[in-house]
Amino acid sequence: MIYLASPYSHPDQTVCELRFHANVRIAAELIRQGHVVFSPIVHGHPLTKQQLSIEWSFWRRIDLTFLEACSELVVLTLPGWEQSVGVTEEIAVAEASGKPVQYLAPPDPWYARTPTLAYVAKETRP
Q1: What domains does the chain contain, in order, with CATH numbers?
Q2: pLDDT single digits (tens) 37-86
Q3: What percent of the chain has pLDDT above 90?
Q4: pTM assigned to the model
Q5: Among 27, 19, 29, 25, which residue's Cα sits nearest to residue 54?
Q6: Alpha-carbon distance 91 to 101, whole Å?
Q7: How far is CA 73 from CA 8, 89, 109, 121, in A?
C-alpha cells in the first residue's frame, strides 16, 4: 500500500484547499493505475472542517500509524514539500523502517488539470 505524502498546512486556507485537490487527483490516478493508496491529506482534510487541527502535531500519531501499515512512501512534491515538517518526518520514518521512498512531481499547473502520470519508482530526490 502506498502512503501518499505532501505538504498541507499553510496560513492561507486557499493553499490548503489546492493541496487537498491535488492529492485527490494524484491518489485517484494512482488508484486507476492499480495501486492501493492512503493519503493523509485526502483522509484528513474533510475532518478539519469538523474543527480538528490542520497542524502536524495533531495528525502525527494518526498519520504515522497509517505509514507503518504501508509498504512504501510516495512524496508528492508540491511547492513547499521540502519545508514541510510532516513530510520531512514521514520521509525519515519511512527510511528508518526500510520502506522505499519515491518522489512524484505534480503536473503543471498541479491544481488545474487532470494529471497524466506514469508511476515510476525512483529512490533519489528530484
Answers
A1: 2-104 (3.40.50.10400)
A2: 999 999 999 999 999 999 999 999 999 999 999 999 999 999 889 999 99
A3: 69
A4: 0.84
A5: 19
A6: 7
A7: 16, 12, 23, 10
Residue 38: C-alpha distances to residues 41, 51, 66, 87, 126 (Å)? 9, 22, 8, 14, 22
Q: One-letter amino acid identity for 73?
A: L
Secondary structure of 22-68 in the HEC alphabet? HHHHHHHHHHHCCCCEECHHHHHHHHHCCCCCCCHHHHHHHHHHHHH
- Nearest of 97, 78, 98, 103 to residue 18 by alpha carbon: 78
DSSP state of 82: G
Radius of gyration of the chain (CA): 13
Q: Give the per-residue pLDDT at 113.
A: 42
The yes-or-no verdict on residue 121 having pLDDT over 50 is: no
